[in-house]
Design goal:
Blueprint lengths: L7 E2 L4 H11 L7 H15 L2 E4 L9 E9 L1 H4 L6 H15 L5 E4 L9 H9 L3 E5 L12 H4 L7 E4 L5 E4 L4 H14 L3 E5 L3 E2 H7 L1 E2 L1 H17 L4 H9 L2 E16 L2 E10 L2 E8 L1 E7 L2 E5 L3 E6 L16 E7 L8 H7 L16
Parallel strand pairs: 2-5, 3-4, 4-5
Antiparallel strand pairs: 1-2, 3-8, 3-9, 5-10, 6-7, 6-8, 11-12, 11-17, 12-13, 13-14, 14-15, 16-17
Helix pairs in contact: 1-2, 1-9, 2-5, 4-5, 9-10
Length: about 350
């Protein structure tokens, strides 16, 4: 999955970028509409954001990611201010006594690919054209940086009330546990900045070209609609994936617990039912009681007619959808990565089932 490299992001790119980010977000990463609106406000005020490919980062660059942490279902009703996004970066920088040179995305997702644009625009910094996963995962330690031995903390965490904290933990799993507790106390949604890394580390730990790919996916959908061709097929072509299932959502069980949106959805189609299991993101698709695709590969739900991505908080009874699958970055299939993000970590009694394209 690659996209032609961009050199900057403008307001005109945001619809396509947010759409493509929500595709890669596998149902999580936050509402793309909310993320787009906040990014649009920041870019209109401060101007376009320059993109820098990871390979072009100076070795001694100071790269600071920023993201939303919490349940996407909550953020729909509790939208953070644009100022809060930049504040998370500056609070961490002040604590560490560092000067950030670049902002980065820690994951692909509807808001977590656009919030870094907000911070970059506010702070006048370039944004790295990459992310820490190539998709979205629900927990802080689930990034390629963890596999590279990069520490999640010190990290900042801020809420809309004005509370800000800085965590130092013994490892990245403890960062997830303690930050999750704080996020729940903060109302199940907070802004964080973490995984500060050098340019040399970023080149190794990030998935390259994510934002360019997001725009390419979004543009493919726009072009298909203009040409009155199949936008779902356009997405499949853009991500190198496959259609798993087409049908109607006939049941959704969704609950917000321990800072996550957890649940299951049943999609009824001509070849039976497909059951989706999610924890913010779609983690497993099952047919006839057997998994057909599991994490770490991508499971994506699109509106059947428009090709628009459908997040887990937006799944509704009667929605006609196509379920896609696409391969994850190959690094996610190493034994160490499977231990970190494989189905057994999430409590599913199965080995990973990979996408067949």
């Amino acid at each position: 999955m690659t996209g032609a490299g961009l050199t900057e992001v403008t307001v005109d790119d945001l619809v396509d970028l947010a759409r493509g980010a929500a595709v890669l977000g596998t149902g999580g990463g936050g509402d793309p509409y909310v993320g787009r609106l906040l990014a649009e406000a920041a870019l209109r005020e401060h101007g376009p954001v320059r993109l820098v490919a990871p390979d072009d980062l100076p070795t001694d660059a100071c790269v600071v990611p920023v993201a939303m942490m919490g349940a996407p279902t909550v953020m729909v009703e509790k939208t953070p201010s644009t100022e809060l996004v930049g504040h998370a970066v500056t609070a961490l920088a002040e604590h560490l006594g560092i000067t950030p040179t670049h902002v980065a995305c820690i994951e692909a997702g509807g808001v977590n690919s656009t919030f870094p644009l907000v911070a970059a625009a506010q702070l006048g910094l370039p944004l790295v054209d990459g992310d820490g996963m190539g998709r979205a995962f629900p927990e802080l330690q689930m990034v390629l940086a963890t596999l590279d031995g990069i520490a999640c903390t010190p990290m900042s965490i801020s809420d809309e009330k004005g509370n800000t904290g800085v965590l130092r933990t013994v490892d990245n799993r403890w960062a997830e546990s303690l930050a999750r507790s704080m996020t729940v106390t903060m109302g199940c949604s907070a802004i964080i900045s973490n995984y500060v890394m050098t340019g040399a580390q970023a080149k190794s730990a990030l998935v390259h070209g994510t934002l360019s790919l997001c725009v390419a996916i979004g543009r493919a959908v726009s072009a298909a609609r203009s040409a009155h061709t199949d936008p779902v097929a356009a997405v499949v072509g853009a991500i190198g994936g496959a259609v798993l299932h087409t049908g109607k959502v006939v049941d959704v069980i969704r609950r917000t617990t321990t800072g996550f949106a957890r649940g299951e959805a049943v999609v009824a189609g001509a070849d039976g039912d497909l059951v989706l299991h999610f924890q913010n993101e779609h983690l497993m698709a099952m047919r006839d009681g057997a998994p057909v695709v599991t994490t770490p590969d991508l499971i994506i739900v699109l509106d059947q007619d428009t090709g628009e991505p459908v997040t887990t908080e937006a799944l509704r009874f009667g929605h006609r959808v196509c379920v896609l699958a696409a391969p994850a970055d190959e690094r996610w299939h190493s034994p160490e990565a499977i231990e970190l993000v494989g189905p057994r970590y999430f409590g599913y009694d199965t080995d990973p089932v990979r996408v067949m394209t």
